[in-house]
Inverse folding.
């Protein structure tokens, strides 16, 4: 590999040396390798961006999502509590690609619970991997079993989702007592 002979390997110190021609050759190989990887990534990103822009004018898609709730519950009467806060989540399109795959979401919430169950409502911003957003308002009902079912109404969007309308039913379930939830959402949408 172009190593010049050094001291006897049995001696105390053995430091291989590299000559200048080999150093230049290794640098050239590394530079070409980096260029090849960069070119490949650029092509992949351009192809991905082109696919992201091709969204049908109407359709359906389903996502799985994981959430962490941060908020407060306050007892306001015998067996009655108000709650408010936010959910922070990640989304995965069930097809492994498409709208909201590998995205993020943030939702606000308010709750009015009697004996641990009751209505909830809020708003969400769903962000696609390329930064485009869908906005929703939602209502639902939280059961004493930790299941929260409801409906998102799509109120708008940005980028490829600009002018979007529709709805998205959801089913969520508490996974722990620390505010972890798993959910599925089924989007039905129309674009202008």
């Amino acid at each position: 590999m172009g190593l010049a002979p050094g001291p006897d390997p049995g001696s105390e110190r053995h430091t291989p040396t590299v000559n200048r021609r080999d150093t230049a050759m290794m640098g050239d190989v590394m530079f070409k390798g980096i260029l090849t990887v960069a070119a490949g990534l650029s092509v992949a990103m351009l192809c991905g961006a082109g696919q992201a822009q091709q969204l049908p004018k109407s359709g359906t898609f389903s996502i799985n999502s994981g959430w962490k709730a941060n908020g407060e519950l306050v007892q306001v009467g015998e067996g009655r509590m108000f709650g408010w806060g936010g959910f922070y989540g990640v989304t995965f399109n069930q097809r492994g690609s498409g709208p909201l795959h590998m995205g993020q979401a943030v939702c606000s919430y308010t709750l009015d619970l009697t004996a641990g169950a009751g209505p909830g409502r809020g708003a969400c911003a769903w962000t696609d991997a390329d930064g485009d957003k869908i906005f929703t308002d939602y209502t639902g009902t939280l059961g004493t079993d930790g299941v929260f079912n409801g409906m998102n109404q799509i109120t708008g969007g940005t980028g490829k989702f600009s002018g979007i309308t529709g709805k998205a039913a959801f089913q969520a379930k508490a996974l722990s007592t620390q505010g972890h939830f798993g959910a599925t959402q089924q989007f039905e949408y129309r674009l202008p």
The chain has one helix and ten strands. The CA atoms of residues 18 and 174 lie 61 Å apart.
